[in-house]
Amino acid sequence: MGDAPATDAAREDLCRPGKIVDGVRADGVAIIAMGLMTSEGQAATDDLDRNRLQAIAEGVAGTESCGTTPVPANVTNGAFLNAEDANALNRLFAQMGALLEGLTPGESFNCPDSDCVDGRLQIPVDPGVGGFRLVVEVDPGAPDLQLAAPDGTTTVLDSRVSSISGATTSLLESGSLQTVDVATSGGAEATGVWTLITDPSVTALVDLYYFWDVTLTVEAPAGVVIGESSPVTIVVRDAAGAPIDLSAYESADLVAGIDGIETIFAPTGEGWTADVAVPVDAAVTSMQVHGSVSAVTAPHGIELGPIRVERQLTTEFPPSFPTLAPAQLDLGRMEGSTSAEAVLTVTGAERGGTRVCFGAAELMAPAAAGSVSLAPDVDCADVDAGATVEIPVRLDVADVADGRVAGTLPVQLHGVDPGEPIAVDVPVTATMIRPINPTTALGLLLLLVLGALLCAWATAVVTRRWYGSYRLGRFAKYVSVPVTVGASGPRRRDDAPELVSPAEFRALSPSARGRLMEFTAGPVEHRVKFPIFPLAEPRALVRGAHGTAVPVTHNPRSTTDPAERLTDFPGSVGFVILTERPLAGAAPETIAGTLLLVIDPGDTSTVAQLLPDRLAELARVNWSAEVTRAHEAWEALSRPAGKQADLAAGSRTGADRRGRTPAAGNAPTPRDHTDPAAASAPPPPRSGPGAPPPRGATPASHDAAPPRTPARSDGDRPHPPPAQVPPPPPPRR
């Protein structure tokens, strides 16, 4: 809607006579306009916009029109309904369906109210009414609706089809909407006041519609003869085809016309009749008769209809004149063509020779078609008695276009006897369709496909970068402690009684909070790597932050770089052990390193509550395989670059033998501690004989692999025994 230049141009293409809307109507397509328009708020629309939309469907609304107006009787008209909000769409569709079926709308009710006391809605049915429809919107949990017949019989509307007091009921449910049809068929026992019974404790919105259940017929018992007066009748018939007595109604009114001109028909008791005279000097080969009947019942004054009828009556020529066929010349669809042909067949009179002559056609065509002409192969043709002559008629336009061509071809028929000829206007129609350039269509298709792929690619990239990131809250903390890793898992290299305690955790730097592509916690650098293919998952990687190191993580997959290892998002799960380069002659069963844990308890938990589960994960690692892999990785880093690549390929294969096996009791577990609020700083470095050696110095004997028999180092102080690990948690389901 609106008045922008592009909108005006589009409306012109739609609504100009002979353009798109006229073509759709002429093809027998009903235009249904359903407006979701509100008169208030930011998206409010005015009456002009409503009228424009309604005119597209119905031809005329207010001061607006669309297509040829009034809408010709020989084309299909449409319908318009409007809803103020989206919640009313269910009822709107039901209302539209009722109108398209030809039902007559009654009143709408909001039960319970003054018209629906205690949830009981009275529905009058008079003689001549074929039935009624109830469109009820009620809460799905409400009790079933009930229906009471005029004789007091009551039925529960809980089945698709049922019978009550000579009437048939049908029920259709869709969510909160229920549609109830009651077909009375005019039976005496179904005449009276029906009652819809709803639960008075809930609100039910009810729309009432009436069936008339009649049809109209247009009849010309003696035909329509040119130059003579011929009776034409419009009759109201019941479902069985029998005429009905219109005196049973309080009133019954007919609005009728011939070829779009309103014509007076006189009532006859079973219908209406009119004497139709087709003049000789302005004859037509056929005439369109249309009628619309509405009625009001007694005693309740129920409005019924309108019921409409249209019929094309072919006129007949006097016996002394030739005849034409077809009555209407349809040149079909001109798809990408600037010309079309049809054939007029002239049949001579039986009494003698006749003659036919053609005049200049009057045509209306789309403006884009340019000049348009219609001409038969001959100007005049003589027809022998009883003979048949076929005369080709050709339509030519200057250019291809979209729309309809309509007009008339004047024909003069000369009879056997001397006298004035009969002048006939033969209707002419054609439909023009602009062709689609295959190259342009293919180019546009490829462009659209490419655009769709680019949009999908961009969406995948943006989504991947949004979800493929570390996410750490303001309460996230980390701990890094020196460990020696052996077949039984990591153990501290200092005098700490536990592998890790809550008091040792410290806060991450303020820059390591929120949604991150990289961050550093202690000696470990976390970063994100995005594969080129946008649908591939981003990878979370860790490596040493202060030089080359070989990491070990809970993730069993390896990378091509021995100095990197895969971890998992959001960065606060699993563990990282940053191993140190083994010294020459070091035992291959162990390796020294630094254990890093990052825990994000949020604002509803504490580090002390989450730490036991995190430490229990250490018991599910095949540490012997990890130690072996770390030694191999360090050996690869010590080789030339070419040999490092060979070992990296082997490390990916070696990852397959790192199957995780539960090893209860192998790893140390801290005692139950609470997370002190002030424990954000690390414990002071230890000094003396029990302190860990500085990096690069010769490790003390307790850093080597544990001997098979108890041994002592650093004087006479024994190693602290490994703490017992709780059994691993049950497997995740």
What oligomeric state is this? single chain
The helicity comes to 10-25%
> What number of domains?
4
Question: In what range is the share of β-strand residues?
Answer: 35-45%
Distinct helical segment count: 8
Give average pLDDT, whole number: 83
Span of the ends, CA to CA = 56 Å
Low-confidence stretches: 650-726
- The secondary-structure class comes to alpha+beta
Radius of gyration: 46 Å
Q: Looking at the structure, what is the overall shape?
A: elongated
Beta-strand segment tally: 46
* Major sheet size, sense and barrel closure: 7 strands, mixed
Summarize the structure.
With 733 residues, the chain is α+β, with helices and mostly antiparallel strands.
